[in-house]
Design a protein that fits this description.
single chain, 5-stranded parallel beta sheet, P-loop_NTPase, Rossmann fold, ATPase involved in DNA replication HolB, 294 residues, 53% helix, globular
Length: 294
């Protein structure tokens, strides 16, 4: 069960007051901006001031072209966390997009594991993730996991650029089978354009070509996740609108089926299934979804 932003913050404040907050917390949601805001609010409560101006507040986030948290970043912050605090008696580490530690063999995640197992005294580590299932089980087992529910249809300016694509997706079709094929074609077209951002003749060659391709793959992966998240949000928004109008819950079943399809697609992709196969399986094999929920 997921909790609202406000409920999470209220419970965290109570835990801080009663000194019962665990040393490691994993915040998960489909909205990365919501997680950043909640992580900073929680850090503010722990430190008693604006965390961005506090010397004992540490932020770790993907910085390389491959959008990973590197082993060196992890080693640096772990070293600092074991030092004596500059002010007060508490340190806070906010580690954003924690799932990126598990990329490239997961060396960064393994380097961070010891700190989670034996955290420094009076230190709180806050991890955020939009894909918690991509984290290693050894990391998950050492954190208090909190799923945060999105605020109603909250999207960032960057995500608004994708909204025209989402609107095409939401256009209904009188023929259900034709609508499925249309969505498959739209998704394939979107991903094809996301994979070819370089101008003709600008492709990188030489030793850096492999790294460039990996960076492009990571960027495509991020665009795909944002697009699917927006589609899912749009369906939840439609459900909310129908219920507010007093429509019977049965009128929302088609939207729920669409959300389950997106969830199934995301799950298959997270398991490393071929992208084309995962898309066609999600939209052309609905019985797989029903069997999982029976």
């Amino acid at each position: 069960m997921s909790l609202s932003y406000e409920t999470c913050l209220r419970l965290f404040k109570k835990a801080i007051l009663n000194r019962r907050l665990p040393s490691a917390i994993l915040l998960s949601s489909s909205s990365s901006s919501l997680l950043v805001n909640l992580g900073r609010e929680l850090s503010r409560e722990l430190l008693g001031t604006d965390p961005t101006k506090h010397p004992d507040f540490y932020v770790v986030k993907p910085q390389s072209k491959l959008k990973r948290i590197s082993v060196q970043q992890v080693k640096d912050v772990c070293r600092d966390l074991y030092l004596r605090p500059y002010r007060e008696s508490r340190k806070v580490c906010l580690l954003l997009e924690a799932e990126s530690m598990c990329l490239g063999g997961g060396e960064a995640a393994n380097a961070f594991l010891k700190t989670l197992e034996e955290p420094p005294l009076n230190t709180t580590i806050i991890l955020t993730s939009t894909r918690p299932m991509a984290l290693f089980p050894t990391l998950l087992s050492r954190c208090l996991r909190v799923s945060v529910r999105n605020r109603p249809f909250e999207i960032s300016p960057e995500e608004r650029e994708l909204w025209p694509e989402v609107q095409k997706w939401l256009e209904p079709d009188s023929d259900p089978e034709r609508e499925k094929l249309k969505k498959i074609a739209l998704l394939h077209d979107f991903l094809l354009r996301a994979k070819t951002p370089l101008e003709p003749g600008k492709e990188e060659k030489g030793p850096g070509e492999k790294e460039s391709q990996e960076a492009l793959s990571a960027e495509t992966h991020e665009k795909r996740e944002k697009f699917l998240r927006l589609v899912e949000l749009a369906y939840w928004h439609k459900i909310q609108e129908e219920l507010e109008k007093g429509s019977p819950p049965k009128s929302c079943l088609s939207f729920i089926d669409e959300i389950r399809t997106i969830e199934r697609l995301n799950q298959d992709l997270s398991y490393g299934m071929d992208e084309n196969l995962a898309i066609e399986a999600a939209f052309l094999c609905p019985q797989r979804i029903k069997s999982n929920n029976s």
